[in-house]
Amino acid sequence: MLEESSDGIVAPAAAMKTISAGAGEDVLSSIAVVFLTASPPPWLRVAVSGRRVSRDYIPKEDLLALSWLEEELDQVLVEARRRLAQSHADEDFHNRMGDVGEEVVMAALRHMRARATQVSLISDAYGYDIEAYLGSHPTRYEVKATGPHTQHSFHLSRNEFDTSQLWPQSWRVAQVIFTAEAFTANEIRSKHIREVRELDAAAVRQAVVDDTENFTWDESSTVTPAVGAWRPSGLILDPAFVTAGFRTAG
User: Which of 56, 152, 168, 201 is the most buried (most CB within 10 A)?
Assistant: First the structure.
């Protein structure tokens, strides 16, 4: 059989190694998929995008533990990720990552002595997550959290888009980009934040296709802005920031 390490990594137990010569690779791979889906390592959700595997997210010791799958490793990870995407645990993980992104922005605003309210804790109806005052006018932040290999696009709800056009001068996306190491850390600290950048409402409008007689989007859509549309955020990260890691979810 297979056994799991303390980090949840699937590797062949001694008994499996003894019989593996007589078992087909497809059988062993299928068993590995089941184990990885049942107890997913925290990096699985971000290391695999579609059919692409980014091994930068996978710790070296985990790659070593999975080396027995090498010829089939990418295929196994893609299939495990596909199954995980259909589970509640995957939703919990992404919700946790989004929550940490909002924590990062709130901590930065407090560090800058801004008056800030995390309105997402009140309702999703606002169309943004945080309202902050550094002067007399508000800034409305819709926070998106991501890793370095998935930073090129983000999901935007129809309500968020409509709100961005209602408040074009004050609404913006604040994208918190975490390092690859953040996805296996027990605690997230300021060193795990690669960058915070912003996208204004006008750039969002340019990236969104107009509704037509034959097409409209109601709930949410994936937005991929032009690379040059992003600009550095004026937020100053709190150097003392610390919160529980992503692995606390699912």
Answer: 201
Q: Which residues contact 98 (CB under 8 A, 6 or more apart)?
A: 143, 144, 145
157, 180: one domain: yes
Residue 110 makes CB contacts below 8 A (sequence gap 6+) with 116, 238
Q: How far apart, in Å, do the first and last CA atoms of the chain sit?
A: 24
Q: Which helix (H) or strand (E) holds 65?
A: helix 60-65
144, 198: one domain: yes
3-state SS class at 48: strand
Q: What letter does residue 247 receive in the DSSP assignment?
A: G
Strand ranges for 56-192 from DSSP E: 115-117, 130-133, 138-146, 154-157, 171-178, 187-189
Spatial separation of the C-alpha atoms in residues 250 and 160, rounded to whole Å: 27
pTM of the model: 0.77
Q: Which residue has the tokens 């959700």?
A: 45
Residues 164-199: tens digit of each pLDDT:
999 999 999 999 999 988 988 899 999 999 999 999
